[in-house]
Amino acid sequence: MANPLYDRLFGRHQGKATAFLQLADxxxxxxxxxxxxAAQYAHLLTRLGMTAGDRIAVQIAKSxxxxxxxxxxxxxxxxxxxxxxxxxxxxxxxFVQNSAARVLLGEGKRAESLDPVxxxxxxxxxxxxxxxxxxxxxxxxxxxxxxxxxxxxxxxxAAFLYTSGTTGRSKGAMLTQRNLLSNCETLTEAWxxxxxxxxxxxxPIFHTHGLFVATNIALMAGARxxxxxxxxxxxxxxxxxxxxxxxxxxxxxxxxxxxxxxTGDLTRHMRLFISGSAPLLAETHVQFESRTGHxxxxxxxxxxxxxxTSNPYDGARRAGTVGFPLPGVEVKITNSKTGRTVPTGExxxxxxxxxxxxxxxxxxxxxxxxxxxxxxxxITGDLGRFDDDGYLHIVGRDKDLIISGGYNIYPKExxxxxxxxxxxxxxxxxxxxxxxxxxxxxxxxxxDGQDAPDLxxxxxxxxxxxxxxxxxxxxxxxxxxxxxxxxxxxxxALRDAYKDLFVQG
Length: 505
Fold this sequence. Notes:
Blueprint: H1 4-9, E1 19-23, E2 28-30, H2 31-47, E3 55-59, H3 64-76, E4 79-82, H4 89-99, E5 103-106, H5 111-120, E6 124-127, H6 135-140, E7 157-163, E8 171-176, H7 177-190, E9 198-201, H8 208-221, E10 224-227, H9 233-239, E11 245-248, H10 250-257, H11 264-267, E12 272-275, H12 282-292, E13 297-302, E14 306-310, E15 324-325, E16 330-334, E17 348-353, E18 360-361, H13 365-371, E19 378-386, E20 392-397, E21 402-404, E22 407-409, H14 411-419, E23 424-434, E24 438-447, H15 455-465, E25 474-477, H16 491-497
Parallel strand pairs: 1-10, 3-4, 3-5, 5-6, 9-10, 9-11, 11-12, 12-13, 24-25
Antiparallel strand pairs: 1-2, 7-8, 8-18, 13-14, 14-15, 16-17, 17-19, 19-20, 21-22, 23-24
Helix pairs in contact: 2-3, 4-5, 7-8, 10-12
């Protein structure tokens, strides 16, 4: 029966002995073997009572098995909620409760903290570890290696991706099969991917970049994937001679450039380097091209839309820009107050419309109405401008979003925690430039006038409540926060004051 996403990504490889995943130790998993494992997982999901439209929250390490869970969800129609492995149990609890997930899949080493989370939400907790062990894997081993694919349409939901909200409440972006398929097909063509490609994949797969861009494109093209658990400099350099393409975040490229082994000879055979999730410094562009002869291709996307624009495969890839709107995707720059399109060259809010744009936020109709216009345009929250040649420039973020190492961080969530700390009157959280992560988090606190804040204790408290990438790299104490005449905290003044905090010189 028809299931467009499964049929066009996974089903097309049924029975093929072609290489799909190659692990760092040289182990090769064929398309047929991978789909057999996914079928076993699909049977188990059904055995657990899950049906099309039900949600499964997944917080497990990157592995072939984790990827097979994704395939099994698509094949059964179960909606996948991939969760950052750095999230604390407290954070996971919100996602499970909000989504009404029926199953929480986590690693065995975190069973003690996650099992109660599942129980409190009426979900079932099961384990799946990076080595393929765990209760989920064990039960699936006895299942058949084929599964009758559940019929779905392009309008059916495929995934929830949670993005942080400015109020501290995370929003579940609902992505349909059409959203994922349209973007994948467009990018496969735009970036010239074929079955001859070998993709070096070191991105996490709880994020749209690693899962719905990199993995989906490889499946669509029939490319082989050098599948490594995380960015490891030695592993990347060892595997690069086998690759033709690589997708990464700015951190990947700065770390490669920092190693003398990364040379033009090492990359001469490569076809394409792609960067996204955070802006790439112009200096990195120049250094990379000087070292390798390759010009990195930058693109622009987000959780709610996948990819919107891309620098051209053929033609000038301009540093400081994210290229042109992708085929079938409309991008306009508007005045945030009037909603009217502004003239070329003027800065305004970026709005996007196309088959890639999500359906809305789960159980947040008011928030959906705020950001998704009746005519289908999504208000991204980013600020940008088009130049005279049609290239899009991202110039800022309307909602103080911090992007550190490719991860989205909203200050409000951290500010609420800082404000609750002993000795703290108020706080402001900002992002400042960082040579490795692009941006990093800095917390500014004002004492309450009684007891001096205990910075060490504050750090410990934040570590217990926040994923590591959200935790401030530095907490600074000020007598007061800068404000305008209306009483609004002037975060721009703070960013300007501390912009060189992590700059080496």
